[in-house]
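Design review, sub-item: ligand-bound model
Attendees: FS, YL, KQ
YL presented the inputs for the iron/sulfur cluster complex:
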Amino acid sequence: MKKVYIETMGCQMNKSDTERMLGMLSHFDYEETQNPKEADLLMINTCSIRQLSENKAFSAVGAWGKHKKQSKKDIKIGFCGCVAQQKAREIFKRAPYVDFVLGTHKIYALPEILKRIQNGEKVCECEETNKTEDNKAKDYEINRVKGVNAWIPITEGCNNFCTYCIVPYTRGRERSRLPEIIIKEVKDALNAGFKEITLLGQNVDSYGKDFKDKNYRLAQLLTDLNALEGNFRIRFVTSYPTDITDELIETARDLDKVCEYFHIPMQSGSSRVLKAMNRRYDRETYAKIVEKIRKMVPDVTITSDFIAGFPGETEEEFEETLTAIDEFELDYSNVAAYSPREKTVAAKWTDKFIPEDIKDERFQRLNKKVQENCLKSNKKYVGRTMEVLVESFYNHKGKKVNTGKTRNFKTVHIPYDQDLTGQFVNVKITGTKTWYLKGEID
Ligand code: SAH
Ligand code: SF4
Ligand code: F3S
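KQ shared the predicted structure:
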């Protein structure tokens, strides 16, 4: 057996691609190692959402390049993922020790690439295909990270072209994977013991819009998955605010396996900034969607993403983001300072860029607001009994705890007396910290 080390950066889409690449590699006698020093093949699966993520990718392979030069000349290095898709052959100039560059559209070219690099060829596979690779996916295993939750992509790519975002350039146009392939992958994951299925996509709620021969949307997929046998949970991320239909909300409410959880990035609380971002809703529209979901789905958790310091954002507009988090009682949000990305529209608005110190200060204030609201949201559940799916156990401040999630995506710590990983347990919530609830088995 040969050994491969893969470093994965970025979102779950990349993690899912890594699991697929490891699956393919296992057909060619590669096994995974956690130690880059003993690997015959080193691969990095990169993210390009912000400049910092891109820089990290180059510094990681830089270290591998040195290792190759100094001690292990015959190792091969592969540069994959979103930065690869975006920069293609340019990678060879910047990192000449890289043997192959593999973009996000062509991960199933990996077996062929392995053959070609053996005789010293440098290979770049980065053309956009804009088709799903479903026909190839079924020929290979998926080496899923062992655990409780299996991630299953249902759409790839994005058509929205938000003015700050690089994803449409790194992942191509939106395309839905076939229901029969998704259902098969879910069944395989359940048979392998996974207890939670998370359906993945940049905009899961536009799933199926591109099917020309059938009317089959996310609500239908959830219904078909819900009918599969076994005790398991279903989640779906990420939802684009205006693509959430009443049918989807009702389906999520009525199906017993589908959890009470929506991730609906708002990005900014200011309607003017939202327009500049090319988001297709304003503050009021977003408010209405959240209000409707809260009314229809009891105990629902709604989380969001926000960007601080988008070009041209005034102090008043930034404050509208802070008030949005309060007003819509957003349970948790991911926050980021705006980072200009090559090819995107907003990156050209250099005269409107917000100085780094102000951007950073807004980012800090946003983080504080998210913390406050997360704690406020958690407090609602103290005293209640909730079903927790235990994901793992670990040492928390010197004490062992089992940790898991409620249906509505709250993290719960339970004192450890045995490993409960993979079990559904009823837990009485006894207290809360900012990011997690504390509880005891009921
Ligand atoms: N499809 C999802 C988001 C995918 S990208 C949606 O539409 O909401 C994940 C998050 O990264 C985004 O929600 C956004 O908040 C953040 N992000 C994207 N581009 C960014 C940039 N140039 N600078 C800072 N944050 C960015
Ligand atoms: Fe990026 Fe916008 Fe597409 Fe989300 S919807 S991936 S933020 S372009
Ligand atoms: Fe994901 Fe980063 Fe690519 S967030 S889609 S890995 S740019």
